[in-house]
Write a structure and sequence with these properties.
This protein is α+β, with helices and mostly antiparallel strands. The protein has three domains: 28-275, Beta-galactosidase, Chain A, domain 5; 280-451, Aldolase class I (TIM Barrel, Alpha-Beta Barrel), CATH 3.20.20; 453-521 and 549-648, Alpha-Beta Barrel (TIM Barrel), CATH 3.20.20. It has eleven helices and 39 strands. The longest helix has 16 residues, at 408-423.
Amino acid sequence: MPTLFRSFSTLSVAIICLAMTLPAQSHSFKTSSPDGRITMAVEGGDAPHYSVRLGDRTVLADSRLGLTMKDEAAWGAVKISAGVQSRVDRTWRPVWGKSATIRNHYNETRYTLRETAGAHRVLTLVVRAYNDGVAFRYLVPARAGAKSFVVTHEDTTFNFGDDADVWAGETKSYHHAYEQPFPHTHLSELKLGAHVVLPLLAHTQGIYAAITEADLTDWAGMYLNPTGKGFSVDLSPRLDGDGLVRAVAPHASPWRVIMLSERPGEFIESNIIENLNPPSKIKDTSWIKPGKTAWDHWWSGDVKMDNDTIKRFITFASYMGFPYQLIDWQWYGKFNSPDADITKPAPQLDMPMLLQFAKDHHVREWLWIHSGDVTRFKNAGKLDAAFATYEKWGIAGVKIDFMDSNDQDMVNWYTDVVELAAKHHLMVDYHGAYVPTGLRVTWPNLLTREGVMGNEWYQFSTLSSPTHRLTLPFTRMIAGPMDYTPGGFLNRSPKEWKKTLPTEVIGSRAQELALFVVYYSPFTCVTDDPEHYYNQPGLDFLKVVPTIWDETRVLEGTVGEDIVVARRNGRNWYVGGMTADHPLDYTLTFNFLGDGKYTAHIYADPTDPKANYEALSVSTQTVTKTSVIKLPMRVAGGFAIDLEPLQR
């Protein structure tokens, strides 16, 4: 078995493996998916390179491989000297997820790339081919007298065979909040050298390709630079100026992931990121409980950080059956300051009283912390004691904000902090965060993270437009959970929306409900003020919709235009549909249901075109897996359905 193979403790299907050494005479090798449709070819020569095909269509052609090290000459000609192949097919259970069980089914090849002259340096390349994509990573082996190394450039490129359509989020800096739109354009129209964030979505020759990374551990996070014919890898530089990655060999890079499908909705269903990460390091996970939370007053105006306001939100969480209420910024007064103390509430707050009030209402608290204060406490050796204080208070989790970087030290900081949080039974929500790479698998107390242009942007602009909302499921969300903070109930049409406080959102009430099904976040922050929820249509749906799932199916999906997602939790199904800039008369068939009858609680757009965007058409009917219903969705509209099985 390859040394990079990691076994999971929760296996329900046997592992099937075949290990063999390939002959060394060839300079070209191929690794194909179990179904044979996807192939990654690796070739030596003057420079190592690869290509990727789906069926008879080349998606990536003649793309470079390799790493450049500090104080070392560029590599010369390379020969692929050997390869070890493995076949794995097993099923495992995540602590939580969008699927109750995950099949990890792939073919793997380990290649040794060796210089044919000069220093005869060696680099190991590990390739995995799944039925929904390929992934590869580098393993830097130890060398006599040179155990440590510094990466100054990653030579990997992703070259498309044509001027592909792309949905690419760009940034001008390595330090930012990872809150970009993903505009639809062509590869040739991207500015050369721009920083493109992950995931990148491309469409070429009828095939969708999504590029991202997995198992980002003790390495620098990846951006993509447009090159005209594709993208080169651009790693976030170390803040000390010493290259990009500094490590001790043997050491593995993250996986470079290329998801492939003719149907972009399959990326939402995929668990390839989960499969490429190490298993949970938390033995007893019974305390990790995903769920919904009430937020705070910021959405409705200036922050009101006082006892009465927090009690009002706790009361609302209790009324809704939410397990949590989040006390956000300013609860410990001045933040990101040398004298800020993350264990001492602001003087106007009676924290013992508030915690008891929450307990009496069967609600637990989450606390916001600025990352600068976390770092200061961490560097002073006081973060363990601070988290111990939270545990003593009965705090459920922490929302940590404003990291705004993915350099190697920050990547390691994420792991250090979530591990320490687990020690004290604290769940975590990272805001101002780079996009997920699967750390949630290894540390399942990390429930969600932001890294998304979410609902809060309606306080400032229309950048979180209907088109943006319908692009996110196929771009940012395929990397993992996203804390979009859905649930704005001041719903407006695109023409009616205005920048104001309290905050209005573009989209119908039905679409806002659909977000809770379409978007995936095990810790879901329900954004609006309690006074905007009470006695409003659709509130019943918010009470019952779960945040984790046993099964996920995408029934319809066009990037930036429309989507329909069905998710199952236990025996209940939930369906969410959304449209962007065009209305859609959608015909929903219930063939995803099991046998028997279900009661469908339907929350849909009104058929009256003059109805305001807060209006809902609410109905109930009995359906089976052969039923068909028509659901008209208006511009920026949608529908949400709660399906309960009838007792037999």
